[in-house]
Amino acid sequence: MSNKTKLHEIKVPVLPESVSDAVVISWYKQPGDYIERDEPVVDIETDKVVLEVPSPVSGIVEKIIESNGSTVQAQQILGVISEQAAPQAVESKTTPSADKEERIITPAAQKMIIEKKLDPDTIPGSGKGGRVLKEDVIAALETTTESESAAPDIKPQPLQSTSGDLADTFREEKRVPMTRLRARIAQRLLDAQQNAAILTTFNEVNMQPVMDMRRRYKELFEKTHQVKLGFMSFFVKAAVEALKQFPAVNASIDGNDIVYHNYFDIGVAVSSPRGLVVPVLKNAENMSMAGIESNIKTLAIKAQENKLSIDEITGGTFSITNGGVFGSLLSTPILNPPQSAILGMHKIEQRPVVENGEIVIRPIMYLALSYDHRIIDGREAVQFLVAIKNIIEDPSRILLEI
Fold first, then answer.
1. Catalytic residue, candidates 38, 119, 191, 373
2. Catalytic site residue 8?
3. First vs last Cα of the chain: how many Å apart?
4. Hey, what domains does the chain have and what are their CATH numbers?
5. What pTM value is reported for the model?
6. Active-site residue 377, yes or no?
7. Which of 18, 245, 307, 329 is 20 to 30 A distant from 54 in Cα terms?
8. Which helix (H) or strand (E) holds 239?
9. 246: nearest Cα among 231, 261, 230
10. What is the pLDDT of residue 92?
11. How much helix, strand and coil, in percent to the nearest 5, is found in the chain?
């Protein structure tokens, strides 16, 4: 190596205050491998997202300091790269494989695949470029019910039928470690229940006016804005207007202080391969219906591809979750601290209702508002939910902001 060769440190990026540390989950390169500048060199997992750490320069990976599974802090050195141009030997070495399509499996995922004797071709990759991550293997294990290879290292015991014959069913158990995100979700939910006085109030909303509006304008809306018109944009708009009327619902508690926000950052819960995440629509009050739908679509795609940034899932002054997409008829959503309230949407079902003294069939959705009674009075919570109901049942209020 030339004396003029510069060595560069691969460091953990700066983490937000709410994230204390991260875990190294996979290195894309090993010592001696060549890497281009800004090419992902290692993945680290926080309790919120998986972060790709890019190479600071083009060069050769000289040393890996923190191996897979290591817990690291912000700005901690992960490895060292020597800066240099791509050597011909490396280019000629990698050229033959350029035409060969090979799935990239991270070391952590490969180790688990070998241990559990899984077929890697049956495991879809959710990482960048279709990389198979450890989380993908865990998900495959959780959904596998028949494969002997996915069973843990225990001997199944046959069940005795009532007639004394051996039954075909075997008792099995398997132990799968929580992902860092799942463990963090579990802790936050437990903290929310222990540290807040959570109550839930319910109401129902007639979705016919919104459904009629969507039916009337959906084709023109999509043609004009290149995005579909969904229900969530109506509820985000309704939530913003209701939050303006009841600022305590948009506030949070910090010690002995109540913090009121003059902005409306609305978290929208979406599912991802790693669990439920809540990306945030920052300054939703300034977004159009098309802007809301477009941002939700972008964030949902990023969630599925594990590409959400920390900034995109932190903050938030109020959240909305839609259990109806999974068939939930009614639920009591739990707070997303430090927020003080969360709105739960549910499945729309045709139900008999009374209008003008007559029984008619209407598409009805149950709404639930869980709130922290320490900061929000019951009267405010009920009136807030009624405001949501009134706006959804008369969508013209959204345009008039009344």
1. 373
2. no
3. 71
4. 6-99 (2.40.50.100), 107-160 (4.10.320.10), 180-400 (3.30.559.10)
5. 0.66
6. yes
7. 18
8. helix 232-245
9. 261
10. 38
11. 35, 30, 35
